[in-house]
Amino acid sequence: MRDSIRGIRVGLAILAALVAPSGVAAATLYVTNTKSESISVIDTTTFEVVQTIPLGKGKPNRVVFHPDGKTAWVVYDKSHDIGVVDAEAGRLVRRLKIGGNPYNLTVAPDGRSLYVLDWSSENSRDEVLVYDVQGDRLEGRIEVSTWPAHGVFTRDGRTYYVSSETAGNVATIDTATRKITHTVWTGGDAMGLALTADQRWLYAAAGEERKIIKVDAQTNTPVGSIALPGIVHDVVLTPDGQFLYATMRRLNKIAVVRTADDRVVTTIAQPGYPDLVTMDPGGRHALVTNRWANTVTVIDLATHTQVRAIPVGKAPHGMALRPTR
């Protein structure tokens, strides 16, 4: 029986590779399981968990990859440190202390720096900590508003946007001077950020306001808002930029916004507290962590419907695609 099942899975993998869009490399998705204290590694062609990586105690949460795909970093919410995962070996290699209470993190496009969003750091301030990856040291601090939550870089890495949850704003940071150049007020519970491919528009989730703020990224000016039926957490653009997926955790739904006119066109029911969204490299599916259902759901982007639920560990939250070459 086991051989038969193994044969079926191999066959599905081959079939998925054959029907995948040409020029798109297969990728794996790393999902942090907060209560299982592990990473579930998902093959994005077969949608199967192919590996589980133990992470140890400390409530692992967010995860990001270096652009070369060899190293992943994981934030631990409870132990307040960061884990370093060797992706090629598939194991945690060490843990390091950065700041006082790291919440989230982003890797600079050139891979040289890790930007850590830190709540109440050693200086009793909320900061973005700039960590030199090659030098293995903290090299800079940027003070921001309370509870920095999400961050996103421009493609050239010259600008970094960071939302501050309780302050209800988004700061624009010049990474060369490490200074804030603009601050846009969005409203309470500022969370997810999505920057369009042409870098003209920045979409910012204003959770408690139940809306998404649209910001002109060239002038750092809010130009409109998109009302949603629930409190919004994460916002992610589809690869073609035609739609914006916004998670509404308490409603157990995803709102789908058409970017041509910034209108909600549909909602997608989810099994249990949808947190974060990642788009697969083939541009056909969205993958969503559902924390209380212990699953990652797969959404067909053509129809905006759920087509699969992948069982993972307990309380999945963070996600990161392993870059491929």
Q: Which descriptors apply to this entry?
A:
325 residues, mainly beta, 4-stranded antiparallel β-sheet, 28 strands, 53% strand
Q: Tell me the number of strands.
A: 28
List unreliable stretches of 5+ residues: 1-25
Q: In terms of structural class, how would the helical and strand content be classed?
A: mainly beta
Strand line-up across the major sheet: 3-2-1-28
Order of helices and strands: HEEEEEEEEEEEEEEEEEEEEEEEEEEEE
Q: Please tell me what the overall shape is.
A: globular
Terminal-residue CA separation: 36 Å
Portion in strands? over 45%
Number of helices: 1
Q: From the alpha-carbon coordinates, what is the Rg to the nearest angstrom?
A: 19 Å
Q: pLDDT average, as an integer?
A: 91
Q: Helicity level, as a percent range?
A: under 10%
**Main sheet specs:** 4 strands, antiparallel
List the helices and strands and how they pair.
Layout: H1 2-19, E1 28-33, E2 38-43, E3 48-54, E4 60-65, E5 71-76, E6 81-86, E7 91-96, E8 102-107, E9 113-118, E10 127-132, E11 137-143, E12 148-153, E13 159-164, E14 169-174, E15 179-185, E16 190-195, E17 201-206, E18 211-216, E19 221-227, E20 235-237, E21 243-248, E22 253-258, E23 263-269, E24 274-279, E25 285-290, E26 295-300, E27 305-311, E28 316-321
Antiparallel strand pairs: 1-2, 1-28, 2-3, 4-5, 5-6, 6-7, 8-9, 9-10, 10-11, 12-13, 13-14, 14-15, 16-17, 17-18, 18-19, 20-21, 21-22, 22-23, 24-25, 25-26, 26-27
Commentary on this structure:
- The protein is 6% helix and 53% strand.
- With 325 residues, the protein is mainly β.
- The strands form 7 sheets. It has a 4-stranded antiparallel sheet with strand order 3-2-1-28, with no helix packed on it. A 4-stranded antiparallel sheet has the order 4-5-6-7, with no helix packed on it. A 4-stranded antiparallel sheet has the order 8-9-10-11, with no helix packed on it.
- The radius of gyration is 19 Å and the shape is globular.
